[in-house]
Write a structure and sequence with these properties.
heterodimer; A: 110 residues; mainly beta; six-stranded mixed beta sheet; three-stranded antiparallel beta sheet; 11 strands; globular; B: 113 residues; seven-stranded mixed beta sheet; four-stranded antiparallel beta sheet; 53% strand
Chain lengths: 110, 113
Amino acid sequence: AQRVTQPEKLLSVFKGAPVELKCNYSYSGSPELFWYVQYSRQRLQLLLRHISRESIKGFTADLNKGETSFHLKKPFAQEEDSAMYYCALLSGAGSYQLTFGKGTKLSVIP
Amino acid sequence: KAGVTQTPRYLIKTRGQQVTLSCSPISGHRSVSWYQQTPGQGLQFLFEYFSETQRNKGNFPGRFSGRQFSNSRSEMNVSTLELGDSALYLCASSLGAGLETQYFGPGTRLLVL
């Protein structure tokens, strides 16, 4: 069975400091990994997907299959980055379900 | 394109009642998935429908059911409500042909008293 672990429930950083949100996964197949973000009173929205290798709002994430990790990084945190961040794994082979981590609340201190 | 819409946005029910939630996917999307979000358990997969067929089901009791119509709109039903069913119910849609991104609706917040 697949599993996604986000070890930090809360992460506080100062504005302008680097940010790293950790995500580890367990999956026997080839993973499709996502980061979703939920700003206050807004819907869950896609931040980025590993296969696209895009940088969204300055965030990047690299899939490390050896360490089974997909950490989210940003070099300089902004106040508007404060939100809940969820790492998710999409399983395939006829089972198109997202398995989410418990989420990390990022608080950027001005 | 309009995003995923869910109705109603808020519901208050009492134990033992049943409830039906509705989800309209993004135009052209044929897959609809449902998730339950609670503070304790986080986001958990309920089920996924594609072309009116349930393709996958999560680990929830049979009181939770769903269906999908020919226009891809979906409903989920919870019968014999329990206090623990209080949650935010999220619907997500995708094209459905493979491992595509799922786009989420705003959710329906259900409170069971």
